[in-house]
Amino acid sequence: MKFFTRKRSAVSAKERLQLVLVHDRTDLTPAQLEALKDDLLKAISQYIDIDREAVQIGLEREGRSQRLVADIPLLITSRRRAG
Amino acid sequence: MTAQVITVTSGKGGVGKTTAVANLATALAADGKKVVCIDGDIGLRNLDVVMGLENRIVYDIVDVIEGRCKLKQAMIRDKHYPEMYLIPAAQTRDKNAVSPSDMVRICNDLRPDADFVIIDSPAGIERGFRNAIAAADRVLVVTNPEVSAVRDADRVVGILEAEEKGSPALILNRLNQALVRNNDMLSAEDVLDLLGIQLIGIVPEDESVIISSNRGAPVVNDPKSRAGQAFRNIAKRIQGQDVPFMDLDLQSGLWGAIQKFAGRK
Fold first, then answer.
1. Residues of chain A with C-beta less than 8 angstroms from the C-beta of B195
2. Domains along chain B with CATH numbers
3. Complex prediction ipTM
4. Distance set, CA A77 to CA A43, A49, B2, B55, B105 (Å)
5. Which residues in chain A have Cβ-Cβ distances shorter than 8 Å to B151?
6. How far is CA A15 from the centre of its chain?
7. What is the per-residue pLDDT across A6-52, written as a single tens digit (0 to 9) for each?
8. B143 beta partners
């Protein structure tokens, strides 16, 4: 696609619908999803060091089913307990 | 005979539910089936005018439920197909005049003497919608390729699944192939991917639908209408026939003419 043309409207429509349907189906607002992510990361951080900048958590759909997908990279740190 | 009860619903209003019901019923009747249509939109009766039967109404569905008439008396015979009937909605403002069990009872009374009972659901997901799906053996969801209609259709599909009504089939109505080609309208593939349900038909946008509803004569009676052809095909699929989907690229006047001229199809 040429960079100076706007995205075709059907593409925007589909992208926007993909997002809104995921939230409609789970009955989870974007704000609630953010809170869920924060709580999830807090819980995980109590056990292992994670790379918070690189975390990706989101809802995905496959046909009519939904899944919560989390990709949480761990930080490579010197073993704290070794010292 | 044991009629199959088919409910046509959509979530959003104005996407073409009533038009779909009138046309599918007429196409089924033209195929020799005995069909009873029920207008489920209590307070906002419309199937009668779309079918051109508004002047024949004496009794309505609430009269049946409240015992003012027999079921047969509220069944209005169609002008052209003597085996097609309409049970009109009442114009009462009492939304609770009909219950889901009333609809189940009426449909069960109709089943032995018909091939198909087709229920026109009101828009929304409230009482009228619940009534309309209560007796359904099969649900058809109508949508347009627009964000609001697709979103509402998805809500309805979710409710139908939660109610264990099975997965409904989709009628994608008013598809404008010229806009799709220009990437300015969601394609059938897009809508199917978003909704995740099976497709039973795509109806092209066609001004003959408006013209025929002005006259109270469903567009399936117009052999030249593309939308009419699409509804006839859906009626065949409802009867279990395997009908290929139409080549919608032929619909747009100029492009179609160019293609024909170029001998491409």
1. 64
2. 4-261 (3.40.50.300)
3. 0.85
4. 19, 8, 71, 82, 70
5. 17, 20-21, 24
6. 16
7. 789 999 999 999 989 998 999 888 899 999 999 999 999 999 999 99
8. B172
